[in-house]
Design goal:
The protein is of the alpha+beta class. Strand 5 and strand 6 form a beta hairpin. Helix 2 crosses helix 6 (about 140-165), helix 3 packs antiparallel against helix 4 and helix 5 (about 115-135) packs antiparallel against helix 6 (about 140-165). The longest helix is centred in the N-terminal third of the chain and has 43 residues, at about 185-225. The protein is elongated. The two termini are about 75 Å apart.
């Protein structure tokens, strides 16, 4: 039955045929020897012998029928195969028996009891069918042995029942020919057949053992070639491990075999988690050293014995997380800090400000928001270069940290814009005025650069909680209004927000009204900026950028009217217009290039967004795979679940989704885990600081490494210099975008954008 089990699992037809023959030979010879051993034990007291041809025929019948039986049982599905194989085996055993009995010659007359003969046939059929049912389901050696025992009992039952049907009547007139096989010759024949069975079984074992050894060696070579560590355990004990795991553990397989995986080597964060789940933990090397963060995946290879004598055999893939954790730490720092100055970035500032306002609403403490803009920074930057500008910004950040006492904090918004959030500190507005005076004094001191003092200074705008607003957005907006008033008043001072500054708000309302008309009157136009493959310069798509051609104001930049559109609710019709026009333009292009369109936070959280996009695709005829929608992290967090639902529905349409401005938010990693983005776009604020600041360079490199690890292409925005291009190429950045590649241009100018033109731009 072991041979039968091996035959059933053979995949190659030729190999399977060979196993069928081998199984039939061993089984047939076993049936034949069982019969004739019993016949040799039968002593009638008369002269007997065996006809050679009949004896040989019985052997052939046994071999052929058993091979046919096992072949049928393994070929036909379900019960049909079991019954067919059992019937063939039963008929074969019976045929062998009575053919062998026909070759039996004795000095007397043989008579048969037909009812007993019929009973023997029934025993043979029933027993053989039962043996096939047991053998077909034999997943263990125990069941395989049981199947063989049942078949043996069927053979013996047939034989002894059949022998009981014989009556021998001695007759001296019956002559026993001399050329018959004697009992001694039959004993020798049976011995030879038994030897053949043993040798065949041994050969099968050797063949299987050699094949298994080769398979094991192949598997070990594959396992050792794997980057991840692989360890096999039974219960809590290590059975085997590949080279990668031994390297992680700092020990050879022989040493590991005496250890418990959990306890001696690994400790998991979630001890009670199921085996087949992804688990993170720490691996402690045997040779000492710091614990290694790892991620483990487990699968059960072999279930333990039902009696519980053995535990399950489990294989674990163990992945070294040090590189990923390092990248995550860099990105986590990036998510919370400005890359150049190390201050809190915009998103963290907004979060901390919101938290401070919540606490102030309960405690009654004062909160002041101070917007800071450096005076004459652009002049110093242009005159002395970017390195001087970076030195000024870094020194300003250091002075702000030294001047602001916790829980108050400072943040950089971008460029030369900073914010200080004063929490408590005394009665307002006196406390804010005192802090502003101190900041002006501190920031007014020259900054040393290359042994040269650089005079910059600053202007400040202040808004107070409750008096000037009750939300972070309102306080920031009003402080910004006050800042502009301070600059208008001559710079180098500070100004508190006053209600008459609401004129700015009225201006925004006027702009919103005119924008509403502009959408209807087709005053908006789209400009397209090329995206190119970094390595060869081939144009792979364009990003659509909206412009407003105002009849009186001229060309209004997006930074002026987009915030107004978001505040007024016009961002929805504006965004729909941009997407429809961009898709229509792209559908008319000769080459099937991608078109990238930005989604605002308001758009992203609209329940009907997927339906609107689907309608636009059908209307314009643009293939969904050519549309790439860009979303920022901040857009996701207004209504996180709805945003993710919309993104999943959009991706189901076939639309590509890109994470824009990656790294400026504080939940980049969790966002990547929650949704499979098709692309990551590195924010230009980091790209522009490549080779200007080591921290920014390291952050860009970390994002590119993370993209490779997650198999997500990365696009670098704001590429403006050849040095930046060369760096990004060296780090295997997928795509680049920026003035070094091409400036935004109307659709009519796109014909001038050829792959060759971009390659020249990339080369020079």
């Amino acid at each position: 039955m072991r041979l039968y089990s091996r035959m059933r699992t053979a995949g190659d037809p030729a190999v399977r045929a060979a196993w069928i023959f081998l199984t039939g030979l061993v089984a047939g010879c076993s049936v034949w020897t069982t019969h004739f051993i019993a016949m040799l034990a039968y002593d009638s007291g008369l002269e007997t012998g065996f006809l050679p041809l009949g004896t040989l025929a019985s052997l052939l019948i046994a071999v052929v029928f058993m091979a046919a039986a096992f072949g049928a049982a393994s070929s036909a599905p379900g019960r049909a195969g079991k019954v067919a194989g059992g019937v063939l085996a039963g008929v074969g055993v019976a045929s062998m028996h009575y053919c062998g009995m026909s070759a039996y010659v004795t000095q007397g007359a043989l008579s048969w009891d037909l009812p007993i003969v019929t009973a023997s046939l029934a025993i043979s059929l029933v027993g053989s069918i039962a043996a096939m049912f047991v053998a077909q389901d034999a997943g263990t050696r125990r069941l395989q042995l049981l199947g063989g025992l049942v078949l043996t009992l069927a053979i013996c039952g047939l034989h002894f029942t059949g022998m009981g049907a014989i009556t021998v009547t001695p007759d001296a007139a019956v002559h026993v020919p001399a050329q018959l096989l004697s009992s001694g010759m039959m004993t020798l024949s049976v011995a030879l057949i038994v030897s053949l069975i043993i040798l065949t079984a041994l050969g099968a074992v050797l063949i299987e053992g050699g094949a298994n050894a080769q398979a094991v060696e192949r598997i070990r070579r594959l396992a050792d070639a794997a980057y991840e560590g692989i360890v096999v355990v039974r219960g809590d004990r290590i059975q085997d491990a590949n080279a990668a795991f031994c390297a992680l553990a700092g020990a050879e397989v022989a040493e590991l075999a005496a250890l418990r995986l959990e306890g001696d080597l690994l400790s998991f964060d979630d001890e009670g988690a199921p085996l087949d789940t992804r688990r993170e933990g720490m691996l402690t090397p045997r040779g000492g050293g710091a614990p290694i963060p790892v991620e483990a995946f487990a699968r059960v290879l072999q279930t333990g014995r039902r009696t519980g004598e053995e535990a399950d055999l489990v294989v674990l893939a163990v992945r070294d997380l040090r590189e990923r954790r390092s990248a995550e730490e860099k990105i986590r720092y990036l998510a919370e800090h400005d890359g150049l100055t190390g201050l809190a970035n915009r998103n963290v500032m907004q979060s901390r400000l919101a938290h401070a306002l919540e606490q102030a609403s309960v405690s009654g403490d004062g909160v002041a928001v101070i917007c800071i803009d450096l005076d004459h920074f652009k002049e110093a930057n242009d005159l002395h270069g970017h390195l001087a500008g970076d030195a000024i910004l870094t020194e300003v950040a250091r002075r702000l940290r030294a001047s602001v006492v916790a829980p108050s904090f400072a943040a950089r918004l971008g460029g030369d814009e900073f914010v200080v959030v004063q929490i408590g500190g005394g009665e307002q507005p006196a406390a804010a005025a005192e802090l502003c005076a101190n900041l002006l004094e501190v920031l007014g001191a020259p900054v040393e650069f290359n042994d040269q003092p650089l005079q910059v200074g600053a202007s400040l705008g202040v808004s107070l909680y409750r008096e000037d607003g009750e939300t972070g957005e309102a306080l920031l907006a009003n402080a910004d209004m006050a800042l502009y008033r301070a600059k208008e008043d001559g710079r180098g001072g500070y100004c508190f927000f006053k209600r008459e500054m609401d004129e700015t708000i009225r201006e925004r309302r006027t702009l919103a009204r005119e924008l509403r008309q502009a959408i209807v009157q087709e005053e908006l136009v789209l400009h397209y900026q090329p995206l190119a493959r970094a390595q060869d310069g081939e144009v792979c798509g364009f990003e659509a950028l909206v412009r407003w051609r105002h009849p009186q104001r001229g060309m209004v930049p997006p930074m002026e009217f987009i915030p107004v559109a978001e505040e007024s609710g016009l961002i929805l019709p504006l965004g729909e217009w941009v997407m429809r026009r961009a898709c229509a333009d792209a559908a008319a292009w000769e080459k099937p290039l991608r078109i990238a369109v930005n989604l605002s936070p308001v758009q992203l959280n609209q329940p009907n967004l997927p339906a609107v996009v689907h309608e636009i695709l059908l209307e314009t005829g643009l293939a969904p795979r050519r549309l790439e929608l860009e979303v920022t992290e901040t857009a996701l967090f207004k209504d996180y679940q709805r945003a993710l639902d919309n993104l999943r529905r959009l991706k189901a349409l076939g639309v590509r989704i890109a994470m824009d401005d990656f790294g400026t938010g504080f939940s980049s990693l969790s966002t990547l885990q929650s949704f499979p983005f098709d692309k990551i776009k590195i924010d230009k604020s980091f790209v522009e600081n490549i080779h200007r600041h080591d921290r920014a360079t390291a952050i860009v490199r970390a994002v590119l490494s993370l993209g490779r690890s997650l198999e997500i292409p990365v696009t670098a925005e704001g590429v403006e210099t050849a040095e930046q291009l060369e760096f990004l190429r060296g780090e295997a950045c997928a795509e680049v975008q920026g003035y070094a590649i091409g400036r935004p241009a109307p659709v009519d100018a796109l014909e001038g954008w050829t792959d060759e033109a971009v390659r020249k731009a990339l080369a020079g």
